[in-house]
Amino acid sequence: MNAEKTLSDIYEITLLTPQSVRYAPVVQHERELALKALKESGCFPSLEKKHKPYNLSIALEKNALSLKFTSVDGDLSRAFTLPLRSLKSFIKDYFLIVESYEQAKYAGGARLESIDMARRGIHNEAADFLRQKLSSRLEMNEDTARALFTLICVLHIGQVRGPRI
Question: 6, 113, 119, 155: which has the highest count of C-beta atoms within 10 A?
Answer without folding.
Answer: 155
